[in-house]
Design brief:
Elements (H helix, E strand, L loop, with lengths): L4 H25 L5 H13 L7 E8 L2 E7 L2 H13 L2 H8 L3 E3 L9 H9 L4 E8 L4 E9 L7 H38 L3 H14 L3 H15 L3 H17 L1
Antiparallel strand pairs: 1-2, 1-5, 3-4, 4-5
Helix pairs in contact: 1-2, 1-6, 2-6, 3-5, 7-8, 7-9, 8-9
């Protein structure tokens, strides 16, 4: 059966609202290379992403360990951090890799300690959607409502779309942040003088790699030998010069 005009208008409005939400999220993250700032933007944007939601947060694990928490309000970050020790919907979503919903925390048996704290803060229902950023960082976006049964099936679909879109954006932010850090390291290394730039060039030639990878090779050697980076560079350049002289 075809939808009535009013039903069609409602469906279109939902699509437009979702598109506007994703556009707002993208606009705040697309040019950022500050990962923590991007997380804060995600938490603040998610807060207004679903009708009936009053607060939101982002829980992250890096290499299996607690990494970051961002929240729309300071106390939400504290509530989210409690999950690391007492479990909660966000950690359950991360482990199961699927959306987790509790329609009424007053009768929720899965996270008794976390639920008591959440209820004391006025949270009565929650939705957590998993976020896969890359091979090393995974997490969840958590939506908190001040009344029971506030989360519909349509809202769950919107949360899933938001989580998938956010994962792509956060992955790009991490890539930019890593590149910016590598560039800063190269600039710092070059500030030591010509010897390090020469050593970087030697490694690039020998290993056919980029400058960032060549610098990492030198840093690794310095750590292994427990000597300063400039000394490693001097030894490498001197060794190449001797080989050429022979």
């Amino acid at each position: 059966m075809s939808p009535t005009p009013s039903q069609a208008d409602g469906a279109s409005l939902g699509v437009l609202e979702t598109a506007a939400l994703l556009r707002e999220l993208t606009a705040g993250m697309i040019a950022s290379d500050d990962f923590e700032q991007a997380l804060d933007h995600l938490a603040q944007t998610s807060r207004h992403g679903l009708p009936g939601i009053a607060w939101s947060s982002v829980t992250l694990l890096r290499a299996g360990e607690p990494a970051s928490v961002a929240g729309s309000d300071p106390w939400v970050k504290e509530l989210d951090a409690l999950q690391y020790g007492a479990d909660g919907p966000g950690m359950t979503a991360i482990r199961q890799r699927e959306i987790v919903v509790s329609e009424d925390l007053a009768v929720e048996p899965r996270w008794p300690r976390w639920s008591r704290v959440a209820l004391a803060r006025g949270v009565h229902s929650v939705l957590s959607a998993p976020v896969d950023i890359d091979d090393h960082v995974i997490g969840s976006i958590n939506f908190y409502a001040p009344r029971p049964r506030a989360l519909t099936r349509a809202q769950q679909m919107t949360a899933m779309l938001l989580a998938e879109h956010a994962a792509l954006l956060l992955g790009a932010v991490r890539d930019r942040a890593r590149q910016a850090a590598l560039t800063a390291e190269i600039d710092e290394a070059l500030a030591y003088g010509d010897v390090i730039s020469q050593a970087i060039g030697v490694v690039m030639t020998q290993r056919r790699c980029a400058a960032a990878q060549a610098l990492e090779v030198l840093r690794t050697a310095a750590e292994a030998l427990s000597i300063p980076l400039p000394d490693v560079a001097e030894r490498l350049v001197a060794s190449v010069d001797r080989d050429r002289a022979e």
